[in-house]
Every structure is written in structure tokens, then in C-alpha cells.
Design a protein that fits this description.
Helix content: 25-40%
Distance between the termini: 22 Å
Largest sheet: 8 strands, mixed
CATH class of the largest domain: Alpha Beta
CATH topology of the largest domain: BirA Bifunctional Protein, domain 2
CATH architecture of the largest domain: 2-Layer Sandwich
Structural class: alpha+beta
Strand content: 15-25%
Number of domains: 2
RNA sequence: GUCUCGUUAGCUCAGCUGGUAGAGCACGUCACUUUUAAUGAUGUGGCCGAUGGUUCGAAUCCAUCACGGGACACCA
């Protein structure tokens, strides 16, 4: 059972003791009238006051006890609320008769959530504090907090019990505040541009819009399986067909694949679609978007990321084929020759899957020799049509598409293209994907006949883009694991959790 | 999926070439009315990740498994 630990038992007894003394250990009678941040700001003038105090002021603050120093008849606490930490000074003689010795010293401890009232003063060591005249327990913590100096460092505990991580590591709160701001700013940026935020289904009859394995769930009333969406793309384009000219959706996608430092089964992206625009317009709006984020987050344009630095003022643009030789060092004479590419890859001791077409081989070259060298933001353009089943062909060269991916710090951050709106071409590409699926590629796209029908009514020329929010936040917060930018990352079940699930079946 | 490192008290960690468990914090008791990880004294607290094996004897050696970290492979 959860509460069999001796320390917890001891604290449950303390809560009982309080109840017997007529004190509610879980009072909701909070009278807080300021945050710690405001208290510190408003009382910053106390330093100049006579006696370094102002007994006419009176504040009530609340928060969790993080440090507890009893020195006989006086004590110092450090209390933390969401906004900050404040030192509180408490003496026996300023509290009701007996309270300090019988309740405060015996029952109150680190982890408890308390409320204190009093006046501001500066201690002998020069720290703005609160001189307490009233003290109340709001919430008794029956579980002891981790060690006060080292806190909790075990990543497994931090991810599984994020609440403990948040209590102990205030920097973690900063990361998630930035994440929240990024999402909020993204929403505002696109709204200000006239985009409409929409919500499309998360349960799809056909998992489309990306190359990925879906999760399957079951609809009992209909007796049919549904897929958790791997991308909202095909629904958002249906909306463009319907006459909306600028839409976006910020939400979760689900992919039934492996988990590692850059992959979580559910992840957040923004996808936006913009009628009467091309991928070139997307390059411009993307630059603008980054500038908007950096301005509003007050980030320096040269941002450290681990060992490297990324210059967010230095956006580059280069066609994929050109990048193979100019950045990847691949001999330019081989990049259109399947045999020679295979030979080249093998000469670098890389295993090459048999039966890849030219575009796929060019993609292999890019992944292998170019991607991790793209540090400053780089738009790689003109993707081969074979690896871009939803992108519009270039009018000049039908072998390539009007597409780009944005790479920063060696990672893909965004994927965008002028959308394919020729229904017959789209049908042909779906058929190609189905052939790939039959020959064993279980990540190939499925045929979506209704989507083809939608296109057959005519979709205005449209540009669309997806940006991975988790990876963007990683970049902006200098985090190197997606788990550090997800409040509750997916974790494998611990042993007895697994057993319980089997018992329920 | 492969390789590699880790898992010991609520937390942070010691524990050598095998001899049956340690520290600090926290908690209990005592002292202390301006401390800063307060201090001093003293005490309680362990299925040493799980299961097997080797051994007279395993936290320690071996095997398998589970979970986590890192690297590689695939994907966003």
C-alpha cells in the first residue's frame, strides 16, 4: 500500500494530532493577499527605512515550506509559491500562547503548505523577510520531500513524478512556461495573420497525411476500429477545398513507433494551410514567425544549443541536390545515378536497402551527409517527387516538388510545400503508395478516396506547413531530450502496473 | 532493435579482491530569539530492482528479466 512507509505514518499521526487539537490539517480558509514576487517588489524600499522595517504594512502570503531552521524560540522558514521564495521569521512570543512549542515546532515541517501574515523587515544578514504575527497550516504534506540540497536528480523519478520534479527544481517550471508561451505566441501570430484555428478529428478511419504507423482504437457502438491521427493534413486541406483560405491547428499527433530522446508517441505540432500562396511565401512567413518568437520571448539571436551556437539571423536556402555536394561533400557527378549512389553509400560502409528509387537514394545521401551539418536555420528546397507524396510538382521540372524542410542545429524543425491539388496526380501517388505498402512498406500512405473526391471539386493553389512544437521548444530551451519539454512523457509501465493491466483483461 | 552504464533508507550517495548494511539530508528527542544546505548532542529508519545459479556464506561473482540514462539504427 502507498502509505506503509514509516515516515508517512508518522506524518499521518501528526495530522491526526492536529484534528484532535481542533486544527484542520487541510484547511481551505486561505486569506492570501499577495504573491511572493509582489511582496518582494513592493517592499524593496524597506532597506531605506528606519530600523529596516515597516510595522504598519501587513501581508499574507502562502506557499510550501522548502527550508526550516529552528533556533530555540525563533525560527526561519523559506516559503515558496509559484512566483518565488521568501524567508519568514517566526518567534514564540509573536504567536498565541503554546502554539509555537506545541504545534509549530512539533507538527510543522518541510513540505507543508502554510500561510503567514506579518510585516516586512530586513534581517541582520540583509535579507528581506516577513516578520510573522499569524501562522496557519493550509495543507499537511504526509510524504517527505527529497533532500533539500541535491533535490531529486534521478531522471526516472523526475519524469514519472513530474509533480516532485516541479516542487524541487524550479528551473523545470521555467522550461514549461517557455513552452506555454511558444504555443500561445504561435496561436497569436497566425491569428494576427488572419488564420482561423480549427479542430479536426483525432480519430481517423484512415491514417493519412504522413508516413507512420498509427495507434488503433475501437469504437464499441459502431463495432469498428479507428486510428489515432498521425497528421491532420488531409482534413485541413478539405477545409481549403471548402473555402477557408487560411487555417491552422495546434494539437497532438500519435505515432506508434519507438521512443527516444527525440520521439514521444504523442507529440504536438502546428500545421497551417494558406490558399493562393506557394512554398516561397511559407519561407517568408517562417522567417517572420521566428523573429516574432525571438522578439516576444526576449531570446538572443545567437542561441546556444549544447556545444554549438545557432545564429537565428542567418537563414539559408539551398536546393537538396545542391546541398549534397556543397554541404555533404558527395561528388556532384553521381547524384543522378542510382548505381553510383549505391556504390558510394556502400563505399562509406552504409547498408543500402535494395530496390530504392533515385529520389529515395538522394534522400539517403541527404540524411547521411548533409542533415547534421545544418546548424544555422536552413531551408532545404526542391525535394524529389518520390519522397514527397503530397507535394506539388515543380512546373519546370516534374521530378522535383515545390517543397522545403527547415533544419536547425542538425534537426528537422518544419516541413512545408505547395500542396498537390491535381486530383488525378494525387490518385496516382496514392496508388504508388499502395503498391509500396503491398511490397512491405507498412508506413506507406493509405488510399483516401474521400480526400481524392474533395480535391476533385477543386482546391485553390495552397501552401501548407507543419512545425514540430516539441522540437522547437527543445531548441529554444537548450534541452536535448523531448522528455524534458513534455510535462508527462510516455514511460514504460513499471512491473506491478503491467500485472494489474493483465488482471483486468 | 543493438551496444553500454546504472538500480543500496523518503532523497543524494559510499560500500575494494565474497564474511551478512553505512554517511549526509529528512524525521524523533534535547539545547539554542537574526539564521542562510543554521549549529551541537542523541536516536529511529533497509525484501541492497526481480528471479535463478556458484559458494559453507552473495549488496558484492555469473545468468536471465524489468526499468532508467547514454550511444547507434528507424521515424517528426
Amino acid at each position: 500500500m502507498v502509505f506503509e512507509n514509516k515516515f508517512i505514518q508518522q506524518r499521518i499521526e501528526k495530522a491526526e494530532f492536529l484534528r484532535n487539537a481542533g486544527i484542520n490539517p487541510y484547511s481551505n480558509d486561505s486569506k492570501r493577499n499577495t504573491s511572493i514576487e509582489k511582496y518582494i517588489y513592493v517592499n524593496s524600499d524597506i532597506q531605506e527605512k528606519e530600523n529596516k522595517r515597516d510595522e504598519r504594512r501587513h501581508y499574507t502570503i502562502s506557499g510550501r515550506i522548502k527550508l526550516f531552521r529552528i533556533m530555540g524560540k525563533a525560527s526561519f522558514l523559506q516559503i515558496e509559491d509559484e512566483s518565488g521564495v521568501l524567508q519568514v521569521y517566526i518567534t514564540r512570543d509573536n504567536l498565541p500562547e503554546g502554539f509555537y512549542n506545541d504545534i509549530f515546532k512539533k507538527i510543522i515541517e518541510v513540505g507543508d503548505i502554510v500561510e503567514v501574515s506579518g510585516y516586512p523587515f530586513i534581517t541582520g544578514k540583509g535579507e528581506l523577510s516577513l516578520h510573522t504575527s499569524e501562522f496557519k497550516l493550509l495543507t499537511k504534506a504526509i510524504a517527505p520531500l527529497p533532500e533539500k540540497f541535491h533535490g531529486v536528480t534521478d531522471k526516472e523519478i523526475r519524469y514519472r513524478k513530474r509533480y516532485l520534479d516541479l516542487i524541487m527544481n524550479s528551473d523545470v517550471r521555467k522550461t514549461f512556461k517557455i513552452r506555454s508561451k511558444v504555443i500561445s505566441l504561435t496561436r497569436r501570430f497566425f491569428e494576427d495573420k488572419g488564420f482561423l484555428e480549427v479542430e479536426t478529428p483525432m480519430m481517423h478511419p484512415i491514417a493519412g497525411g504522413a508516413n507512420a504507423k498509427p495507434f488503433v482504437t475501437h469504437h464499441n457502438a459502431l463495432g469498428i476500429d479507428r486510428y489515432l491521427r498521425i497528421a491532420p493534413e488531409l482534413y485541413l486541406k478539405r477545409l481549403i477545398v471548402g473555402g477557408f483560405e487560411a487555417v491552422f491547428e495546434i494539437n497532438r499527433n500519435f505515432r506508434n513507433e519507438g521512443m527516444d530522446a527525440t520521439h514521444n508517441p504523442e507529440f504536438t505540432s502546428i500545421e497551417f494551410y494558406w490558399a493562393y500562396k506557394t512554398y516561397k511565401d511559407l519561407i517568408e512567413i517562417t522567417k517572420e514567425y521566428f523573429k516574432y518568437l525571438f522578439d516576444h520571448l526576449n531570446l538572443p539571436t545567437i542561441l546556444p544549443y549544447g556545444e554549438i551556437e545557432v545564429n537565428f539571423k542567418n537563414f539559408q536556402e539551398i536546393p537538396l541536390i545542391e546541398s549534397l555536394s556543397s554541404i555533404g561533400g558527395v561528388p556532384s557527378e553521381i547524384v543522378y545515378d542510382k548505381e553510383k549512389i549505391v556504390e558510394f553509400l556502400k563505399s562509406k560502409n552504409l547498408t543500402v536497402k535494395p530496390g530504392l528509387n533515385l529520389g529515395q537514394l538522394q534522400g539517403e545521401l541527404f540524411d547521411e551527409f548533409v542533415e547534421d551539418k545544418l546548424i544555422d536555420p536552413t531551408f532545404i528546397t526542391e525535394y524529389p517527387v518520390e519522397i514527397s507524396p503530397l507535394a506539388r510538382r515543380s512546373d519546370e521540372n516534374p521530378e522535383i516538388t515545390e517543397r522545403f524542410e527547415l533544419f536547425i542545429a542538425g534537426r528537422e524543425i518544419a516541413n512545408a510545400f505547395s500542396e498537390l491539388n491535381d486530383p488525378v496526380d494525387q490518385l496516382g501517388r496514392f496508388q504508388g503508395q499502395m503498391a509500396a505498402k503491398e511490397s512491405g512498406d507498412d508506413e506507406a500512405h493509405e488510399m483516401d478516396a474521400d480526400f481524392i473526391e474533395a480535391l476533385s471539386y477543386g482546391m485553390a493553389p495552397t501552401a501548407g506547413q507543419g512545425i514540430g512544437i516539441d522540437r522547437l521548444v527543445m531548441l529554444l530551451t537548450n534541452e536535448h531530450s523531448i522528455r524534458d519539454v513534455l510535462l508527462f512523457p510516455a514511460m514504460k509501465p513499471i512491473h506491478n502496473e503491467e500485472q494489474n493491466q493483465e488482471e483486468e483483461v
